[in-house]
Design goal:
The chain has about 700 residues and is of the alpha+beta class. The chain is built from 13 helices and 34 strands. It is rod-shaped, with a radius of gyration of 43 Å.
Length: about 700
């Protein structure tokens, strides 16, 4: 027989359930009230140990409260107070605490704890110190709370009202060798509004250079509400002023954020010295760029500015490796002032700017010296690697017509290569490879400079000698190897060869006749109005063999339709002394010839041309003596039989040395060489060398 519930029984059951539910709710309420009462009476001080364990476990750090601790509802807000609160740093950090606060007080809504980003209604922070550090391998930092690189980073809650006094921040990056200590001004805010700026100031050191820094967070209200941080920083280091501004997504996020950077100072080399990169000195500079820090790289793009009277644009990257810095750059210059080129070869640009070319000349034991003697910064070259591409459109200069410069530079483990360095000089193209090996001591420099075919009239035009005239061309090559830490020292020990070849072309008749001082022909041509008639150059070679810094003519030989020009002597890179004698022997008879060598002496910085040689005076003396005996015989001292032997152009055009030179008939030449021939068929002498 089936049974069924009566309506009275069902109602009693529902009533019993409601009673139990009310009892449970009342019990929970009483428990909450009791808990609130206990917390309110005790201020939650007994929760200090659980707080340290729970928060420490979440942060993977040791959390300690050295003084008073309070955590309770007052009455419906969570009130927190901790004195001597510390959060530990990882073992690799130089200081024990990531955070240390003498007193921390905060009030927040309990419901805020259920959100991803907490909202704190009021916070007071007194005498707090924050320490942010990277490990030496740059894989972990102290504000990422995990043993893994992808752990949870430091985040900031939204704060409605805040008061911060005595707050300091310390930042360390061993790989960048950067240390910064900042102190913030007292900060007070209400209703999430802090004011116009949060300002800070401090000191630091990057590599071995100290600096002072000031800055401000210009949009703190946006910072506490939406995480937009308009930051501006000004730093002064080694006489340079660097300004930086930008918007950070959070206070702890600097990587992959574009920042506008401006730098100015007296010398760009001093700025780059800060990061261990050595460049030649410059005059005053001002540069702007966009900076993005990505892992270990500083990426500078959209760079524009000036150094001295020259413009500069482009981009470069500074990579801070574990052991060495590497710089890669692509630069362009529209107009490069010749004064700003001075430091690239070892001259002081400020001195050249104020005194002109005279500033490049020094005196050593009373003798003028032109070659720069500024030493290479060997230790600095060992500290970094580099790659550079630089193009210059034109060089502003009164006398050196340079343009279209292309430079490719590489520095790898103290091996510096300028390969290639090309430029146009008076419409002639020069290409060169220069290698400086600073791995050996002293440094070894290899010079290989090539002048492509260039018209001499164009080459000399910038020196005001266009009227001196020729339509001939010239090609050349300089190949030298020397040891030394300056341009002067490396050339003073150099060995190799210098050769310039003149293929067929023309000289004005005036020039050739003056070189040989053939007064009769010169006067005749002048009276006939043919002074500017061209003389054909068959071939020519001006070459020197260099041994231990001394260059000896090997040979100087130019063959024209009218005469043969030959020279002997040389110059020294050691004391920069020049001693060269050049003369032209006619191929045709001349009755009135004052033929004798033209001397080029003095120094690189003060050359001296000597058209009146001792041989010419000797010839005049002989003529006067003969005139005393028989007046018509005086003319015999000035007769040139015109017996010069034409040169074989094959060895000349090949740039061969003096021993390989031949007459057109195939015989060895006796009028060229490093020393006088044992038996010279000629009776004339060149400054005692011929």
């Amino acid at each position: 027989m089936a049974t069924s519930s009566t309506p009275g029984h069902a109602g009693e059951t529902r009533h019993r359930r409601r009673r139990w539910l009310l009892r449970i709710v009342a019990g929970l309420f009483l428990l909450l009230v009791a808990a609130w009462a206990v917390l309110y009476v005790t201020k939650g001080r007994f929760l200090r140990a659980p707080f340290e364990r729970l928060v420490g476990a979440q942060l993977h750090r040791q959390v300690r409260v050295a003084g008073d601790f309070q955590l309770f509802f007052d009455p419906f807000e969570i009130q927190f107070r901790a004195e001597g609160l510390t959060i530990s740093n990882p073992d690799y950090a130089s200081r024990p605490h990531l955070f240390l606060g003498r007193r921390v007080e905060a009030r927040m809504s309990p419901l805020s704890l259920l959100r991803d980003k907490w909202r704190i209604r009021r916070v007071e922070l007194a005498d707090a110190a924050i320490d942010l550090e990277w490990d030496r391998a740059h894989r972990h930092n102290s504000w990422t709370f995990s043993e893994k690189k992808s752990g949870k980073p430091l985040t900031f809650p939204v704060i409605d009202r805040a008061t911060l006094t005595g707050t300091t921040l310390r930042y360390r990056d061993p790989r960048l060798r950067l240390m910064t200590d900042l102190r913030y001004q007292t900060i007070r805010s209400e209703n999430a509004h802090i004011g116009s700026a949060i300002r800070f100031a401090g000191r630091g050191q990057v590599r071995d250079t100290p600096f002072v820094v000031t800055g401000a967070l210009l949009s703190p209200n946006a910072t506490v509400q939406r995480g937009h941080n308009r930051l501006t920083v000004r730093a002064v280091a080694a006489g340079n002023v660097i300004r930086m501004r930008g918007t950070l997504p959070s206070l702890a996020a600097l990587e992959d954020v574009p920042l506008r950077v401006a730098a100015k100072g007296r010398n760009l080399a001093h700025l780059l010295d800060i990061i261990g990169v050595a460049v030649p000195d410059t005059r005053r500079y001002h540069l702007t760029a966009q900076l993005v820090l990505h892992e270990a790289e500083y990426r500078f793009t959209k760079m524009r500015g000036r150094f001295g009277d020259s413009d500069l644009a482009g981009a470069f990257t500074v990579h801070n490796g574990e052991s060495r810095v590497r710089v890669n750059a692509a630069l362009t210059t529209h107009r490069l002032d010749i004064v700003d080129v001075a430091p690239f070869i070892g001259y002081n640009p400020d001195a050249v700017a104020s005194r002109g070319a005279a500033a490049a000349i020094t005196r050593v034991k009373g003798a003028p010296r032109l070659l720069p003697d500024a030493p290479l910064r060997i230790e600095a070259l060992r500290a970094f690697d580099a790659g550079l591409r630089w193009h210059v459109d034109t060089v502003r200069s009164r006398s050196v017509p340079l343009s279209d410069i292309d430079l490719r530079l590489s520095l790898d483990n103290s091996l510096l290569k300028l390969r290639p360095l090309t430029f146009t000089m008076a419409r002639g193209r020069v290409t060169s490879d220069v290698t400086i090996d600073a791995r050996v001591r002293p440094a070894r420099t290899v010079y290989d400079i090539r002048l492509l075919s260039t018209r001499l009239s164009r080459l000399l035009a910038g020196f005001g000698a266009i009227e001196a005239g020729t339509t001939g061309t010239v090609t050349g090559r300089i190949q030298l190897v020397g040891d030394g830490d300056s341009v002067h020292d490396s050339l003073s020990t150099s060995r190799g060869r210098i050769a310039f070849v003149l293929p067929s072309g023309t000289f004005w008749m005036r020039n050739v006749q003056l070189v040989e001082l053939d007064l009769g022909v010169f006067a005749q041509r002048m009276l006939q109005g043919k002074l500017k008639d061209p003389v054909q150059i068959n071939c020519g070679l001006v070459a020197f063999t260099v041994r231990n810094g001394t260059a000896t003519a090997d040979p100087i030989l130019i063959d024209t339709t009218k005469n043969v020009i030959a020279g002997r002597g040389g110059f020294s890179f050691k004391d920069e002394r020049v001693d060269i004698a050049i003369r032209a022997d006619a191929k045709k008879f001349s009755l009135f010839s004052g033929q004798s060598p033209i001397g080029l002496g003095g120094y690189f910085a003060a050359p001296v041309i000597q058209p009146l040689s001792p041989q010419l005076f000797a010839r005049v003396g002989v003529g006067l003596g003969m005139a005393a005996l028989l007046p018509p015989a005086a003319l015999l001292a000035f007769v040139d039989p015109g017996d010069a032997k034409a040169a074989a152009c094959g060895p000349v055009l090949a740039g061969a040395n003096a021993a390989a030179q031949r007459t057109k008939g195939g015989r060895p030449r006796g009028d060229v060489g490093a020393s006088p021939p044992a038996k010279s068929p000629k009776r004339k002498k060149f400054l005692g060398l011929f």
